[in-house]
Amino acid sequence: MSIIENHTTNGQAFSEAPKLQARNVDVFYGDKQAIYDVSFDIGANEVIALIGPSGCGKSTFLRCLNRMNDTIDICRIEGDILLDEENIYDPKVDVVPLRARVGMVFQKPNPFPKSIYDNIAYGPRIHGLAQSRVELDEIVERSLQRAGLWNEVKDRLHSPGTGLSGGQQQRLCIARTIAVDPEVILMDEPCSALDPIATAKIEELIDELRENYTIAIVTHSMQQAARVSQRTAYFHMGQLIEVNPTDQVFTTPEHSLTEAYITGRFG
Amino acid sequence: MNYSSLLIAIVILFGGAYLLGRNRARALASAGGSLHSLPTHYGALMALWTGLPAVLLLLLWSILQGPVVDALLVKQLPAAIQQGTDIEIQLALSKVHNLAQGAGLAADASLQPAVEHLLALEQRNRVLHMGGALVIALLGLGLSWRRLRPSLRARTEVERIVSVLLFTSSGIAVLTTFGILASVLYEAWAFFQKVNVFEFLFGTTWSPQVALREDQSGSSGSFGAVPLFTGTLLISLIAMSIAVPVGLMSAIYLSEYATPTVRKYAKPALEVLAGIPTVVYGFFAVLTVAPMVRDIGVSMGLDVSSESALAAGLVMGIMIIPFVSSLSDDVINAVPQSLRDGSYGLGATRSETVRQVIIPAALPGIVGAVMLAVSRAIGETMIVAMAAGLAANLTANPLDSVTTVTVQIVTLLVGDQEFDSPKTLAAFALGLVLFLVTLTLNFIALKVVQKYREQYD
């Protein structure tokens, strides 16, 4: 299989109330192109699932949305990504507030080797969000409650975050992201290292978070995409093949490649 | 027949046994027998059986023959000497050995029977020794040849012999450490028979001159080692206050900020520092740094001695930088990338990430690196011997000249010495203290590093 010439994305790629807009995005790792001319919208307060076979560029694309790829020297990005109509790749944009607005949860739970409390307080502290100890305590409690972890950890806030179970660690990382009050949360296969019960909890949480946040989630599990997302984007070999409402993608996909992937013919 | 031809013979037997065993096994296999192991295992087993016992015998014989020969010789010495003290017997024995080699200064008729006996013994010894080795080798070859059959578990046996060999090799290093400790302990014990332990550990005057003759005036010797300990401590402190910040910051730069190209050249360049012989650092300290320190001090109106703790400490600090930076760089690199991503993902800057996530995560490893550097600083000799001076001043002033434990060990043992005077024995007591301190530091460092490893594996 190779790149499709003169490809345009099928389906409903654009949104009426866009939060993030990608326009003609190309991504290169050195000489190798990883993303080809991707344009679509992520609507406010929607959960969009990015699916596709391994190496299709979905994680790479996700990492462009809060400029995490800046930390990779050989990575180069062309095209525009707009957050609330403002280009995040504009030279005037500072990545520090950008990443506070667009938070990220990673594949493997990565709590810092600090206490549960300090893990949550890390972001608010570096961004100066709390004026007093009381305020910081409130932020920590609120974040843990939103992440559904408060009842499990309220008695041991000062024990190490690395001592929690895998699922708890991942919810801790979500709480840590929520604590800086982002507008968008990017999730890169957040459940791939978790067991089914922990996964179910996270999925429930994602559904609740949709009220306040815009969420883009990369996943390898089509059931998960079907359960948590409103729209689904299918990536293939660095191209965006199709974006449609999730029901439609899994019942009547427009493109033959999407159909082949969701019916398990490759991937 | 001499030793080299004996060794060649054993090597030939060794190789021959291997080929013999392998070919025999192949022949057995093609004759329809199903072998337990590969033919090479049978060959290896036969070779080991042939070579190992013979080599072991040679080694044991070489170690034991000296005392045995001496014990036999004593009986041939004149009765007067046999009645004498151990020292007289030893003296007579070494005379006999010298005479037997034709290097005797003056022939002593009373020792002649012993000399002849020794020559005869050596003749017989050589025949028995070499003959024994050859016989054992052939015996091993023959026995293993008889044992060789398809059902023989050659692979298992070879593996077991190899694991015993490996165990022995690692044992040698450990035993050597114990041997060193034992010899130092023995001599230090002799010292503490002459000088009180508490006087040594807590006395504040170090003046290890003792009278060589009964009628010599003055110098009864004073062995209070506190000035040496404080000197060592002072210089180590100065060295660490240079090496830790500079080493740590260069490690952070190399692992977090430097581009791969810079890192590729800068890291080996920094490690070159560790390859410079300490003597070179020593004359750098004496000829360049010490005068510079003195000139700067004098221009500021300070009284600086020409051999100052500061100069030695500064140069030692520079020498230790690569230890700190290289080890810290390794532990910082071992901090998982996911922690950095997590921190950057929250909008932290590079320096916030370094200070609040990476350093805390790498701290146990960094502590381990610093500990190793400290024990290196305490044990360093050449720089301080050349640059810090010999005066055992009890002072905390870095501009004064001080001396260290290692420097004193060197001065006590250099030149002609009597090995029963407290002056010489003091070196072993100092060595013992040094050994215990660095051993403790290394032990702590290893424990800390181990704890760190458990965290991320």
The CATH superfamily of chain A appears as P-loop containing nucleotide triphosphate hydrolases
Q: Which strand order do you get reading across the main beta sheet of chain B?
A: 1-2
> What portion of residues of chain A is helical?
25-40%
Widest beta sheet: strand line-up of chain A = 1-11-10-4-9-8-7
- Our Rg estimate of chain A from Cα atoms comes to 19 Å
Structural class given helices, strands, pairing of chain A?
A: alpha/beta
Low-confidence stretches of chain A: none
Low-confidence segments of chain B = none
End-to-end distance of chain B, in Å? 59 Å
What distance lies between the first and last C-alpha atoms of chain A, to the nearest angstrom? 12 Å
- Which topology of the largest domain in chain B does CATH recognise? MetI-like fold
- Provide the CATH architecture of chain A: 3-Layer(aba) Sandwich
Mean pLDDT of chain B: 85
Any idea what the shape of chain B is?
Answer: flat
The main β sheet of chain B shows up as: 2 strands, antiparallel
Q: How much helix is in the residues of chain B?
A: over 70%
What's the helix-strand series of chain A? EEEEHEEHEHHHHEHEHEEHH
Estimated structural class of chain B: mainly alpha
CATH class of the largest domain in chain B: Mainly Alpha
What does this structure look like?
- The complex is a heterodimer of chains A (267) and B (457).
- By secondary structure, chain A is of the alpha/beta class.
- Chain A contains ten helices and eleven strands.
- Chain A has one domain (10-262): Rossmann fold, CATH 3.40.50.300.
- Chain A is 34% helix and 26% strand.
- Chain A has a seven-stranded mixed sheet with strand order 1-11-10-4-9-8-7, with helices on both faces. In chain A, strands 3-2-5-6 form a four-stranded antiparallel sheet, with helices on one face.
- In chain A, α4 packs across α6 (166-178).
- Chain B folds into two domains: 3-152, no CATH class; 222-456, MetI-like fold.
- Chain B is 77% helix and 1% strand.
- The mean pLDDT of chain B is 85.
- In chain B, α11 packs across α13 (350-379).
- Chain B is flat and about 80 Å long.
- With 457 residues, chain B is mainly α.
- The interface between A and B is medium-sized, with 28 and 21 residues.
